[in-house]
Fold each of these.
Amino acid sequence: MTESDEINAMVSDFSRVYILTILHEGPVHGYEIISKFKKVIGKDISPSLVYPFLKKLEEKGLVTYSLKPVGAKKRKVFELTQEGKEFSERLFKRFSELISVALEPSLEICAHCGCKVYEGGYVERIKGRELSFCCVHCAASYKLSLGIK
């Protein structure tokens, strides 16, 4: 497998995770999945990825569909089964843990409250040290606790 093939496989897998995310939000038809994907991710997704994936989810009992009127047409509206919801929640939890591991090195810890700050924190030099805070209010509270106005 070439590097390009590996990258395409990874993107394809991410696409499937995002399709599950869309399904987790509630019942949706195939074209709506394609539209939401484009709107949120900013990239087109091929129907040749979406519909076979929905079929595979259906075969595994993770999704079901019903024919419902959408505009002038009847469309298959897909919905996660209870098993599908449980599966996607386990997958999201695992994905979240992986993302946390990747982000951890870039997080700053607020010197006052200890919360983790990914971006947009506040930095201030206090007693010769540059300290990171989540916001100006925490910086002010920290200085107050040191008796600094």
Note: Strands lie at 28-29, 63-70, 73-80, 108-109, 116-117, 122-126, 129-133.
Amino acid sequence: MLGGVVDDVRVNDRLTIPAAELAWRFSRSSGPGGQGVNTTDSRVELSWDLAGSALLPPMLKERAAERLGARLVQGVLTVTASEHRSQLRNREAAAARLAGLVASAIAAPPRVRRATRPSKGSVERRIAEKKRRGETKRNRRSYPD
């Protein structure tokens, strides 16, 4: 961000989407803004052509396309922001939203969980506690004389 205007979008430490690959559209926003909402183009749409970008290596591009499949329209990822009254804050919000989406889309898959069995001692303790609890409840019962 330079002088209050969003330039490049920083996704993570190693990846920054250059401003040349971003497309901005502005329109009138519904919501807060009073009388100004009728005259100010504060709603922001930020688009990035994932499929046409040479920024990502093929493997990451494939992973991102797979994870963002429902959000992509002909390979283009679009985010909107209209929650703020000013266009500048909406531009910042849209850039942050795009960065978050791309970061989560290209993140490495989580490690596979290896199934483990509970230890013999923990099983015995659990069953002993269940028996104690049942005995406590059984002692609360009242039997007719």
Note: The chain has a mean pLDDT of 87.
